[in-house]
Amino acid sequence: MYSRVISGVVRGVRSDLLSVETDMGQGLPSFTMVGALGTEVREAAERVRVALRHIGAKLPPSRITVNFSPADIPKKGTALDLPVAAGILICLGILGQEEADGVFMAGELGLNGQLLPVRGILPLIMCAREKGVRWCLLPKKNLAEAGMISGLRLIGADTLGEAVSYLKMPRARRESAFPVSEADYGALLQSQEREVPDMAGVHGQQAAKRVLEIAAAGFHNALLIGPPGVGKSMLAGCLPGILPPLSVEEAMEVSSVYSVCGMLDASRPFIMTRPISRPHHTVTQAALLGGGNDPAPGMISFAHRGVLFMDEFPEFGARTLNLLRQPLEEHTIRIARKGRSIRYPARFQLIAAMNPCPCGYYPDRNRCQCTQTEIRRYRQHLPGPVLDRIDLCVEVKRVSFGNLTGPTTGESSAAVRKRVLAAVSRQRERLRGTGISFNAEMDSEAVGKYCVLRDEEKRLMEEIYEKLSLSARSYHRLLKVARTIADLEGARDITCVHLAEAASYRIRMEEKEESYAE
Which DSSP string do the residues of 238-272 spell out, in sequence order? Predict the structure, then answer.
């Protein structure tokens, strides 16, 4: 007897469909599985054998061969337990091949026949839908996550026996019992809105608030420099309150990363808000980038389409910070292992905070006891190529007693977010059809097309370029920041005022570097 069942395997944050072929014939009794299998998949033979016995299905003394096709794709995880069991049940005549045709199956089996949830259901279901599959048989605890993909009929079962019963239903009855899924993303977004500090609660710091507004509107990288306790971390905590929401396509990308790590459940089956990842400065390379013996996404990928907040920036060390260079440019992370290569998404916004010196109080010499050598050594922890990729830099100064004790007069996050959303809308309208969502994502060709300068602005830009000794990368980044400032004001063209403000954030960074080197 021969059977064929549709399943899939996750690779990175994407997946491939598999054909699980089972043959049961004459020969010495054995249970053989082939097709580039990982340890978990090879162990499925014993789980399936015992689970079948618990639902009353006895394996005859036959030669059972299970092939996972394509054979050259590495298979790991426990999601293939259910399709293996279904293939054997078809060969035993308990299920008909026509009852399993066109049904995607995935799930882990307990020894008692219970169906257990598995990781990576979201990318698996997305791949199945793209390949034309319309029926999916899954563990019931994976249904909430799978339900975020519209247009599928989802069958959820708690046990292998339940799964068999559902498959044996007449087609018409099955269609009536399992309607087509429809995801309500709007309701999900409302349920996930989180409480974050309001900018109105931050005393003073107007310059830093302005920088965060520009960063949120254009998805630019930013660096906050200031002594301890002036509010750098609090300001960064306000950022989620002004960021634009994820589009459905972006939410699919983000949720896929969390799905393959098993971080989605019934209480949060899908992610509709931009993620915030906060690595500690003792983070390892594998934890930051991803990888390990069994490769998994790192904290950079957890910040995909969101924010990577790195407090105490120099404490990470030059070696760790240099790891950011490629992801900041290519927006992807490649993990190479013997015989395979995995890619993880890494389109994130870097927000960093740091003290001006080891003790944190430079240039206040009444409090700072650091020598110039110590300050220079501390500064050297920040690689130049990484600083060159930071668009905005602002000094967060100590707040005066009057500002600290008086009533807050700043704008609320809601008011700032309104301007941010208007600026984002202008960007997306201008960049429609290019595959670019934010100004910070523009390449040099797009900058040349959408950041056109008139004669007066060109002369000012030439002065800025020479005075600051800008690199080609810095030049393009400054233009992109100026474009975002113009978008916040609703201006069609970039003016000298926009260029001057954008340059002031580069000037502040350069001045800070010079003061450290004195």
Answer: HGGGTSPPPPHHHHHHHHHHHHHTT--BTTBSS--
